Amino acid sequence: MAVKQKRLSIRKVEEGMRIGQPIVDSTGRVMLQRGTQLEGHYIKYLQDHGINSILIQDGEEEPPEVELSEKAKRAVELTRVDDPSKVTLREDVKKRVGEGVKFLFDNTSAGGFTEAANNVADELTRAITKYDAVAIDISILKVSDEYTFKHSVDVASLSMIIGKKYGLNRDEVRELGIAGLLHDVGKSQIEPEILNKPAKLTDEEFHKMKYHSLYGYKILEKSKDFSNAIMSGVLQHHEKMNGMGYPMAIKGDKIHPFARIISVADVFDALVTERPYKKAFSKRDAIEIIMTMTDDLDMKAMKSFLTTVVLYPVDSIVKLSNGEYAKVVENNFEHPLRPKVVATESGNIYDLNNDVKCQSIVIL
Questions:
Q1: pTM across the whole model
Q2: Superfamily of domain covering 3-60
Q3: Three-state secondary structure string covering the chain
Q4: b/e per residue 32-41 (b: at least 16 CB within 10 A)
Q5: Rg for the chain, CA atoms, rounded
Q6: What pLDDT sits at residue 13?
Q7: Domain 91-310, what fold?
């Protein structure tokens, strides 16, 4: 669906409106992502940064009216299976987590660094354990709208759910969350002109950027408050199972499980995030890309990811490649791209994964 847009003076924008394009500062760093729903503090943030006008999403072109026929309603009643409990983050929790991560990146040598890291991890742990969440609706990710902080919290949230499926206990999942939150903290030591460059890095710049995981390790080592597992997760999250990663080019079992899990979450979130120099991949395409990275990523961590993500929540409406609209009635967590659906008009049930007659049908 195409999104209509209009430009408004910053004085006329209102809370609840959505931004029509990424807003970047003079260095090209993304301040707010496209699609961000404006809140009062965002509007003030833009005003304080001298933004005079912005593009606002002015509604979407309406898709054809999608209503369920009586036959489809009966089929839904017979086949619908609720999704398992998913991670939810209240708006106040998102705000506290985002502020906490920003503090961590801005105060790597401050006395409250360790306490702040623990507090943020505790917030995420409560969100995951409150309803015994075993899955994550990847459409709800995006805790903060500044890339570095959004990415850190998204990676931590994803990593914790993956870690739970991976078989880690509660204490290990919490520590994994800390490692996920801090996996890029070493970027605070990278020159701003490299970190915020609105274009692809040169080979020399990328070589410097590679040191961020080592810098992060040294920041945590200096504090003497973090476990070896957390520090290993931060140091090794860019290592690859085939030994082609960095900073140490280690491979296989030499890579700590925390780093293997964070690597999957890190790759996924980077793929689906829009940056000034690249468009975001769709979540579907990102999952398909990850499924091809069998040389780079740990297979157990990859499978744990694939069996916890909810790409098409039950009750969502999708369009099929055969031209029909359909309602999702059951997810297949071994194959998240191929749920069971009911055609909204014909009432046909399409088990996209298990019915051989549906092999040629995909969700568009």
A1: 0.75
A2: Molybdopterin biosynthesis moea protein, domain 2 (3.90.105.10)
A3: CCEEEEEEECCCCCCCCEECCCEECCCCCEEECCCCECCHHHHHHHHHCCCCEEEEEEEECCCCCCCCCHHHHHHHHHHCCCCCCECCCCHHHHHHHHHHHHHHHHCCCCCCHHHHHHHHHHHHHHHHHCCCCCEEEHHHCCCCCCHHHHHHHHHHHHHHHHHHHHCCCHHHHHHHHHHHHHCCHHHHHCCHHHHCCCCCCCHHHHHHHCCHHHHHHHHHHHHCCCCHHHHHHHHHCCCCCCCCCCCCCCCHHHCCHHHHHHHHHHHHHHHHCCECCECCCCHHHHHHHHHHCCCCCCHHHHHHHHCCEECCCCCCEEEECCCCEEEEEECCCCCCCCCEEEECCCCCEEECCCCHHHCCCCEC
A4: bbbebebeee
A5: 22
A6: 83
A7: Hypothetical protein af1432 (1.10.3210)
Residues 217, 205: contact at Cβ < 8 Å? no
pLDDT tens profile 35-84: 777 877 778 877 877 777 787 876 544 445 678 999 999 999 999 999 88
| Domain-wise residue ranges, the chain | 3-60, 67-83+313-364, 91-310
pLDDT of residue 145: 43
Beta bridge partners of 340: 330, 351
What are the φ and ψ backbone dihedral angles of 349, each rounded to 5 degrees? Answer: -100, 125
Residue 140: what pLDDT? 55
Averages of pLDDT over each 10 residues, the chain, 364 residues: 68 81 60 73 78 73 70 96 77 70 75 80 77 65 52 86 93 93 89 80 91 94 91 97 95 97 94 74 87 94 91 90 94 89 96 92 88
Residue 291's CB is within 10 A of a number of other CB atoms, namely 16
